[in-house]
């Protein structure tokens, strides 16, 4: 009996001290360190490490030098890492609906209020074994950039570098889609393997693409989605105090999206100073482009996921 009590006491003590211990999460980013779509995540890591002293710590391993970007989603799923900064377009192989985030341009404050985040989080729980902690860049659109001038809104005969974000719209406009990770875009352009590429309005200077880019096709379309995903087992293993540090920092991170309006203005200016011309075929063609982009994307999501796709569309994607 004494032994049992002693054991229970020891276990109890051990349990208590384990719960009070600082936990360390291993993190990676699908985007290069210090570049546009890693920057705010890196600020988030700093904030967690400052606010979470003695409670929770993030050990940031790095970007694509540490792990190929298209493997990051699977690394979260299988708990090779605990937390990651990654866009859904990089793991549609595991979760066909993952790139639908680009069709939700509502603020995250709204998405958390109206049930959108909740539904998207559940999908990540079920399909990727991940907790959808935060979503960044809802107010940053994409463009197609070109090395050649077009005389009409038609990509026939052109090869365009894509990810699942742009594949459907590029094909709907007659282009040939060539999938590459961001790290291969420069070489593909330089060697003429592609005549253009899809990318957000921000970030083309980070990897030197401005040197091989001549035109930015209008209009801007969709909405960047870069999520912060936590392996679901890791998430469930955290204490309330540890989760609170992450949640508070996640809301703060989402709030950083307010900076994007000014950042976009400055970046467009920088692009034109770098000699990149805006290619615009007028209001009617812009409207047609957006309709084609929107329809092609939803059709593709619904085709890949016939049950969930329509539900996502109903949730107020565009
Ligand atoms: O690689 C990409 O073009 C891509 O899909 C993406 C998604 C979000 C942010 C930046 C790039």
Structure commentary:
Helix 11 packs across helix 12. The model is unreliable at 4-18 (pLDDT under 50). This protein is of the alpha/beta class and 318 residues long. The strands form 2 sheets. The protein has a 6-stranded mixed β-sheet. It has a 5-stranded mixed β-sheet with strand order 2-1-3-10-4. It starts with a helix and ends with a helix. The protein is globular and about 65 Å long. The protein has 12 helices and 11 strands. Residues 37, 87, 89, 163, 165, 182, 198-200, 224, 226 line the site of benzoyl-formic acid (173).
Task: Please write out the topology.
Layout: H1 2-20, E1 23-29, H2 36-51, E2 56-62, H3 72-77, E3 83-86, H4 108-113, H5 116-128, E4 130-136, E5 142-146, E6 159-162, H6 167-172, E7 176-179, H7 185-190, E8 196-200, E9 215-221, E10 226-231, H8 232-236, H9 240-255, H10 260-273, E11 277-279, H11 283-304, H12 308-314
Parallel strand pairs: 1-2, 1-3, 6-7, 6-8, 9-11
Antiparallel strand pairs: 3-10, 4-10, 5-8, 5-9
Helix pairs in contact: 2-9, 11-12
The protein binds benzoyl-formic acid (173).
Sheet with the most strands?
6 strands, mixed
State the total count of DSSP E strands: 11
Which cofactor or ligand species appear? benzoyl-formic acid
The helix/strand class is alpha/beta
Average of per-residue pLDDT values: 94
- Please give the count of helices: 12
Order of strands across the main sheet: 7-6-8-5-9-11
Provide the helix percentage: 40-55%
How far from one another are the termini?
A: 66 Å
Shape: globular
**Mind telling me the C-alpha Rg?**
22 Å
Name the helix and strand elements from N-terminus to C-terminus, one letter apiece: HEHEHEHHEEEHEHEEEHHHEHH
Strand content: 15-25%
Low-confidence stretches: 4-18
């Amino acid at each position: 009996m004494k032994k049992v009590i002693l054991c229970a006491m020891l276990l109890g003590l051990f349990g208590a001290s384990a719960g009070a211990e600082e936990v360390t999460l291993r993190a990676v980013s699908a985007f290069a360190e210090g570049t546009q779509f890693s920057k705010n995540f890196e600020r988030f890591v700093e904030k967690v490490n400052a606010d979470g002293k003695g409670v929770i710590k993030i050990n940031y391993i790095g970007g694509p030098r540490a792990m190929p970007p298209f493997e990051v989603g699977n690394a979260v799923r299988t708990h090779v890492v605990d937390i990651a900064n990654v866009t859904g377009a990089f793991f549609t192989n595991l979760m066909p609906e993952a790139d639908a985030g680009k069709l939700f341009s509502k603020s995250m404050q709204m998405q958390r209020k109206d049930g959108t985040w909740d539904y998207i989080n559940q999908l990540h729980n079920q399909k990727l074994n991940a907790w959808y902690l935060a979503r960044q860049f809802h107010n940053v659109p994409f463009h197609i950039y070109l090395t050649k001038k077009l005389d009409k809104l038609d990509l026939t005969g052109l090869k365009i570098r894509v990810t699942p974000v742009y594949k459907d719209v590029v094909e709907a406009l007659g282009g040939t889609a060539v999938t590459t990770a961001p790290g291969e875009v420069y070489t593909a352009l330089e060697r003429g393997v592609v005549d253009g590429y899809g990318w957000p309005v921000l970030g083309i200077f980070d990897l030197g693409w401005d040197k091989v880019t001549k035109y930015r096709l209008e209009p801007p379309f969709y909405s960047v989605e870069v999520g912060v995903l936590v392996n679901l087992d890791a998430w469930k293993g955290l204490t309330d105090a540890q989760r609170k540090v992450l949640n508070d920092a996640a809301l703060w991170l989402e709030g950083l999206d307010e900076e994007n309006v000014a950042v976009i203005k400055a970046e467009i200016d920088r692009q034109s100073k770098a000699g990149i011309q805006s290619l615009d075929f007028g209001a009617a063609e812009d409207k047609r482009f957006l309709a084609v982009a929107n329809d092609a994307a939803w059709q593709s999501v619904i085709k890949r996921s016939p049950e969930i796709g329509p539900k996502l569309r109903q949730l107020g994607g565009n």
